[in-house]
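1st attempt posting a full record on here, be nice pls
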Amino acid sequence: MKKLKLGIQISGRGSNLQALIDACADKDFPAEIVLVISNVADVEGLARAQRANIPTLTLPHKTFPNREAFEKAIDEAHRKAGVELICNAGFMRIISPYLINQWRGRMINIHPSLLPAFPGLDIHQRVLQSGTLFSGCTVHYVEEAVDGGAIIAQAVVPVLPDDSEDRLAARVLKQEHQLYPMAVRLIAQGKITYQDGKVIRNDMESMCQNGLLNPAIHS
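the predicted structure (as tokens):
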């Protein structure tokens, strides 16, 4: 089975990276990680990749003269490794149109809210302050608008009356760890494709039968 080659971009602990590592350890999973890039040295995510014998590269953004030079180095590294899909997993850098144009429709991100609600930072605080009853996470394609790309998949969690930011964040993160590998699987299997800024869902009948398009509430 030909596997989709993934490049993962991180800036920290890499818990979503670990979820993808664990998924890729299954011989039947249709993707493999060929490179992990971090813009921060000595983070836990790099150690996770190294323990799994995945090549890593540290590119501290502050060592580059400008954003384009930094992103050119990223682009070159992914291409050299044969990457076919970039997965941002806690990559704390705004990505410029330069890199987006190089990888449009081949770069995805996971965000801890039900986009288009609550893009940006301080999500869980804002969710709690808003009084909304539900939150969750979203996997989406990366476009110029921050957290504004076409939505691939979402998972829903309830916002409980006694929630703190930490409790809500932990509940959402648990769903992130399931949602990201599922979204990668759908892309690798060709059930999700990208066309003209939109997500095209192929084999809809199979996806519905397997619950992949049905909204679910998780505790």
